[in-house]
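Handout for the seminar on molecular recognition.
Each group receives one record of this type.
Step one: identify the two inputs.
Step two: read the structure output and locate the region that could contact aspartic acid.
Step three: write two sentences on what you found, then compare them with the reference statements printed after the record.
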Amino acid sequence: MKNFTIAIHGGAGTILKSSMTSEKEAAYKSALSKALNSGSQILSEGGTALVAVEDTVRLLEDSPLFNAGKGSVFTAKGTHEMDASIMEGKTLQAGAVAQIEGVKNPICLARMIMEKSGHVFLAGDGASDFARKMNCEFMDEEWFYDEFRYQQWQQIKDTDTFQLDHSTDKDHKFGTVGAVAMDINGNVAAATSTGGMTNKRFGRLGDSAMIGAGTYANNATCAVSCTGSGEFFIRGVVAYDVSCLMEYKGLSLEAACREVVHSRLLKINGDGGLIAVDAIGNIALPFNTEGMYRGWRKSNGEELIAIYK
Ligand code: ASP
């Protein structure tokens, strides 16, 4: 069998063992494991990295444990505006969607945008029109509603504050989701999906929808999916920066990720992490927060599922 690799994240932030029950921890690990099973099944059957990352992120979107798709955070208006993006390393094709409401799986819409719209990035009402044209599945408000997220929003609702949903004082859980993979042909791909930040206003967009900031893939270097306070990841053009350090400076995946997450991001006070694979199947999962829901699996059966530092 030829080699493949897949890595996933479910968000980074103030995730502490002291604020987690063993039941909750088991639920997260089980959701991560289910997503890894599905992605590695696709890759083991010769499926492409693109299909594997889309499918894996779709499963994570359907889990209310994470801030993406079902269970997305509330905006200041009490709505759910989701962002997602996907990129294929072989062709450098990419698709992204921002401020989308009601679509069950924003990541599938991002892939349709990449393949069928003639564009890379669609947002808001126009993106909804395109989703309807593509017969994307829409869900009503109840599907996206999550009691914990609602309470989280209530606490900061009438303030100017917005926050990473897993960095509240009360509880430290949930997050943006992402997947990166290398398939048996050495092609890489990356996908990221999020509800963004609780109480976001004014049509705020995060890095998760932005190719180069939250998501990037290039067979010549690596595939990257980020999570954290999006404003810093946009300013640091983080996903592309990892790729650039490899391409222009000849850094290894590990060294490039370390430089970006533990040095460049910190210099601008950016908190978060990323997952990355290169075209020979190396994996890096650096983060500068207390925790990051994360996991990876290789074709030889080796795997890791972890939450804390
Ligand atoms: N990066 C996401 C955003 O800023 C949030 C997250 O990763 O949890 O929208």
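Reference statements: The radius of gyration is 17 Å. Residues 169-174 have pLDDT under 50 and may be disordered.
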